[in-house]
Structures are given as structure tokens and as C-alpha cells.
TrEMBL record:
Sequence intervals crossing the membrane: 7-27, 63-85, 92-111, 117-141, 148-168, 174-192
Compartments, as annotated in UniProt: Cell membrane
Primary site of residence: membrane
Gene designation: plsY
Pfam families: G3P_acyltransf
Membrane topology category: Multi-pass membrane protein
GO biological process: phospholipid biosynthetic process
Group of enzyme by EC: transferase
Name of protein: Glycerol-3-phosphate acyltransferase
């Protein structure tokens, strides 16, 4: 297989695999809940936890954790496959971006989707481990203190951007932070409704 066809398969795999709405499927299968029409309407772990908790708190924690894990690794799987094929850095970063695009604009949900936090942090953990671990630590600390998922995610995202510039003034293999900014802008865009609610002091807490 030539490199062009190999890359096309990797890009399609990244987009389509990351588009699988695990939160929606898990909540529907195990809790009988359509999370697209409950809570915030988001398919991510936070909404799974919030909505299913009304019926079964113990199940909510399990499904929320499973959603977080599956959303995080679905982009990582294709990255690891590409690394085994010795794909160049430019291809790996394209896969990372397409994984976030696939989750946020899923072909299986009429190009709607989640907010991209778990998938974004998952692929960035592979591509930039140290900045991502710093960002995850900041995110966890903010989550514990603020108990507002959206704001904690945005704070963690900001921490990742700052850490990436400090640790990698030039991104290895591509010399640019452009893919990181694209991922960040997608996540920021998907959080605009949350930002509006934060400004209006209407954003709910995760308790």
C-alpha cells in the first residue's frame, strides 16, 4: 500500500472511529436514557453522569467513567496504529485533529457530537505527554475546587496551550503549534453555550 492510500485510510479511521457516540450508546443500552434529549443534550461523560444519576447513581458513575475512557482512547487507537506503520509527525497530527473533529461533528449524529475534551486530551496525551499531564492535573484540580465541568475543561485547555509553548517552543516534526490551536479552537467553539451560561451564572455544577 502506498503512503497516500495508507494516510487516507488512517484519516478516515480517525474520523469515523472517533465519531462513535459511546456516551449515547452506553446510556441508551444500560440505562434506557436518550442523553441527546436529556440534561445538557451532550453525549459526553458529564451529561451521562448527570442524567443517569437521576435513575441510578451507582450506574451513573460506571457509565460516566466508561464514556470518559472510551472517548479518550478512540483517537489514541488510530495514532498508535499509525505509529506502528511509521507514519510521519505531520500524519500523526492530522489524525489527532481529525479524531477531535470526528467526535465533535460525528457522521453518526448528523454531524453533531460532544465537546471534544476527552478525545482531545487523549490524542494530545500521545502527541505531547508532559504538557497533557500538566493540563490533566490542572483540570482535575479545577474540577475538584470549582465543580463546574465546562470551566474546568477550559482552564485545563489553557494550561495545555501554555505548557506546550514552554516545553516545546517548536513542535517536533512540524515546527508549528497549529494542530494544537485547531484542537483548542474546536473545543472552545463547542463550549460557547457553556461560556454563555457561565457569564449568566446559569452553568450547573457536578455534585
Amino acid at each position: 500500500m502506498d503512503i497516500f492510500n495508507q494516510n487516507i485510510l488512517l484519516y478516515l479511521s480517525a474520523y469515523l472511529l472517533s465519531g462513535i457516540p459511546f456516551g449515547y450508546l452506553l446510556a441508551k443500552q444500560f440505562a434506557g436514557v436518550d442523553i441527546k434529549h436529556a440534561g445538557s443534550g451532550n453525549i459526553g461523560a458529564t451529561n451521562v453522569l448527570r442524567v443517569v444519576k437521576e435513575k441510578d447513581p451507582a450506574l451513573a458513575k460506571k457509565l460516566g467513567a466508561a464514556t470518559l475512557f472510551l472517548d479518550a482512547i478512540k483517537g489514541m487507537v488510530v495514532l498508535f496504529a499509525a505509529m506502528m506503520l511509521d507514519a510521519p509527525e505531520s500524519t500523526l497530527w492530522t489524525i489527532a485533529v481529525l479524531a477531535v473533529v470526528g467526535h465533535c461533528f460525528s457522521a453518526f449524529l448528523a454531524f453533531e457530537g460532544g465537546k471534544g475534551v476527552a478525545t482531545g486530551f487523549g490524542v494530545l496525551l500521545v502527541m505531547m505527554p508532559i504538557p497533557s499531564l500538566i493540563a490533566i492535573g490542572v483540570w482535575l484540580g479545577a474540577s475538584k475546587g470549582l465543580k463546574i465541568s465546562s470551566l474546568s475543561s477550559l482552564i485545563g485547555l489553557a494550561a495545555l496551550l501554555v505548557a506546550s509553548y514552554i516545553i516545546y517552543p517548536e513542535v517536533p516534526g512540524i515546527g508549528s503549534h497549529s494542530p494544537i490551536w485547531i484542537i483548542a479552537m474546536i473545543i472552545f467553539y463547542k463550549h460557547i453555550p457553556n461560556i454563555i451560561r457561565l457569564i449568566n451564572k446559569e452553568e450547573g455544577k457536578v455534585v
